[in-house]
């Protein structure tokens, strides 16, 4: 019966994956959803560079003309956006501009789709045996429910999906093999596109040994690359900063981090937001870092496993980003689901866990109502609340009541402590171990 049930789950998971993938082009072809709006911004930058123009200046001019027109008050019209990646990316864009748009676009979408699948795959690495059935069904839904709430941001084509897919894959390589230099190179490169992604350097710091120095060096290199741009491309850099400021002035795009939500609320009430949101960010970032530090010590001692630690760690690291966007919570969907599931499993038994999780998931969809004004603050609250709850669970959980836990192996590979099998005992010629005795098994 157990194997038959698992087979049914796998068949359902395959059907869910087919439905999740097929529904994306179906949404586009039906006209019910726009697609590629961020990719169109990249295409406009290519057109500007082909014409020998500054893509920031061109984008700003288009934005100013739009917001000075009557169209700006029409909520059915999507406002124009400017290319807001720093000038250090322009040489790469110039190289891409030599290709026909249909060729570069096809390559981009292929890489994009692969990165989305990589993000989901890395999330599935943190499933425990008791969670496989439910989470296998949740995995395909991750594409349509970033932050556990329905949203079509996956159709945007935003480069963040590719960056997160590569970075998470290289983080997994670091956890598996203890090889972190590819991860550092990827984060430095990603920070040239999106500077706040430097906060991802906290992943190896809090999950592997002796990574403070290389992570600090990578952070310094990333900051150096950002700083020297004002000297290498002074005109473009000033226009880039202006384009970034228009994200707030025209698009009110503060993100869904706690600091971003406060800034957006202050802006909506015509109050100064820069200083207040900055101080608020510092006020919660310090205890957030301290909680990550103390939990990392528990992980290093072997009190918690990577399966338990990684979902909470990823939430905490993303919360360190002062401006979290929809695509920043996309890689958190499975970690959020795992934390919610484990909170239900903490005090409940099957089938109560499944019922509680399903009610929680449906309640979130009901609360959001597919309303953009509700979606952002709700996802921000969910991410923050589940981090606090997940961290607290790891703080109070003792190694004695965990079926699997990590073994301190220098942070070079993943190991789990499990009770030895009868076969292992016989082959090793050992006597029956004490109740809490465990054996480290390298995966």
> What is the helix/strand order?
HHHHHHHHHHHHHHHHHHHEEHE
- N-end to C-end Cα span: 29 Å
Describe the global form.
globular
Q: What is the percent of helical residues?
A: 55-70%
| Physical arrangement of strands within the biggest beta sheet | 1-2-3
**Number of helices in the DSSP assignment:** 20
Q: On the 0-100 scale, what is the average pLDDT?
A: 86
Please state roughly what percent of the residues sit in beta strands, choosing from under 5%, 5-15%, 15-25%, 25-35%, 35-45% or over 45%: under 5%
* Rg over CA atoms: 23 Å
Structural class: mainly alpha
Number of strands: 3
Instruction: Give the oligomeric state of the chains in this entry, treating copies of one chain as homo and distinct chains as hetero.
Output: single chain
Low-confidence stretches: 400-443
Instruction: State the major sheet.
Output: 3 strands, antiparallel
In short:
This protein is mostly helical and 443 residues long. Helices cover 65% and strands 2% of the residues.
What does the model show?
The model is unreliable at 400-443 (pLDDT under 50). The protein starts with a helix and ends with a strand. A three-stranded antiparallel beta sheet has the order 1-2-3. It has 443 residues and is an all-alpha fold. It contains 20 helices and three strands. Helix 1 runs parallel beside helix 6 and helix 3 (55-67) runs parallel beside helix 12.
């Amino acid at each position: 019966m157990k194997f038959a049930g698992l087979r049914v789950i796998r068949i359902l998971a395959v059907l869910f994956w087919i439905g999740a993938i097929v529904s994306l082009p179906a949404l586009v072809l039906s006209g019910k959803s726009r697609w590629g709006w961020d990719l169109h911004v990249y295409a406009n930058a290519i057109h500007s560079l082909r014409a020998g123009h500054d893509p920031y200046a061109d984008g700003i001019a288009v934005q100013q003309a739009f917001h000075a027109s009557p169209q700006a008050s029409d909520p059915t019209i999507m406002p124009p956006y400017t290319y807001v990646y720093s000038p250090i990316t322009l040489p790469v864009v110039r190289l891409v501009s030599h290709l026909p748009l249909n060729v570069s676009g096809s390559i981009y979408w292929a890489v994009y789709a692969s990165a989305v699948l990589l993000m989901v795959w890395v999330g599935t690495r943190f499933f425990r045996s008791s969670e496989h059935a439910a989470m296998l069904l949740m995995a395909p839904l991750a594409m349509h429910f970033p932050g556990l709430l329905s949203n079509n941001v996956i159709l945007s084509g935003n480069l963040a999906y590719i960056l997160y897919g590569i970075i998470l894959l290289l983080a997994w390589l670091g956890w598996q093999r203890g090889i972190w230099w590819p991860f550092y190179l990827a984060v430095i490169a990603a920070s040239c596109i999106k500077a706040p992604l430097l906060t991802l350097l906290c992943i190896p710091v809090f999950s592997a040994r002796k990574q403070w120095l290389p992570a600090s060096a990578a952070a310094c290199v990333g900051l150096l690359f950002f700083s020297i741009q004002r000297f290498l491309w002074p005109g473009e850099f000033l226009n880039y900063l202006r384009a970034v400021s228009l994200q707030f002035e025209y698009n009110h795009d503060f993100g869904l981090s706690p600091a971003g939500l406060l800034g957006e609320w202050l802006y909506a009430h015509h109050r100064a937001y820069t200083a207040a949101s900055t101080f608020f960010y510092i006020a919660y970032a310090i205890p957030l870092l301290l909680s990550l530090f103390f939990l990392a010590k528990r992980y290093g001692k072997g009190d918690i496993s990577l399966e338990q630690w990684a979902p909470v760690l990823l939430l905490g690291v993303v919360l360190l980003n002062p401006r979290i966007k929809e695509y920043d919570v996309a890689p958190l969907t499975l970690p959020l689901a795992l934390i919610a599931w484990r909170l239900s499993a903490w005090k409940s038994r099957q089938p109560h866990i499944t019922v509680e999780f399903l009610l929680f998931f449906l309640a979130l969809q009901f609360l959001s109502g597919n309303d953009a004004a509700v979606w952002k603050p709700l996802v921000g609250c969910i991410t923050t609340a589940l981090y606090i709850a997940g961290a607290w669970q790891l703080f109070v959980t003792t190694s004695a009541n965990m079926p699997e836990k990590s073994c301190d192996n220098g942070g070079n590979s993943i190991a789990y402590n499990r009770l030895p099998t009868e076969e292992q005992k016989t082959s090793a010629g050992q006597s029956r171990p004490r109740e809490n005795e465990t054996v480290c098994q390298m995966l």
